[in-house]
Amino acid sequence: MSNEPTPPPSPLLNLSPEVLQRHAKSARTAGWICLAIGIAAFILPGVFTLGIEILIGTLLLIAGLTQVFAAFGSIGSKHWFLAMVTGLLSAVVGVLFLTNPLKGIITLTILLGIFFLVSGVARLIYSFQLAGKGSRGISIFNAAITILLGVLILSGWPESSPVILGIFLGIDLIFVGIFLLTYSSACKQQGGSSGEGN
Length: 198
What we know:
Elements: H1 17-43, H2 45-73, H3 80-99, H4 101-127, H5 133-156, H6 161-196
């Protein structure tokens, strides 16, 4: 049995150096992906807006039909009728999204605004749990931008909604990517310094 002392956890999120190195790698990969998609969405907002609307409509339709078929297979069980109703509702909403893209985009834009507000507040709370000043500053800035995007969306729809979904999603993903790359760098540095100090 080894008597070597276990390396103390890093002050960054209280994680060991090994876990921090793994976090650094995954955060760097996710950061570059977010940056690439965010830039593409910002350059081609209309394409991304319509693509998101079609994707969500298709997913709702598939999920709804799957639930309806599952409900048919469980007729007589306790909640089969409720499952049938919710499945039909999902399928109908999916069809509406696919047959009337403009209304679907407006609805998604409102939901995105709400999502940005909630996500921004959650990111702000998370920011104050970060130990590194550099990561904390970027995270707070990212949270503030996300909250601002939510406010702008909810105060400005539906006039600009056909492209605003793609533009604001692109902006948010770019800032998320920058934060993830900064976080990855902080994890790598902290993990390395913690490992060397033992």
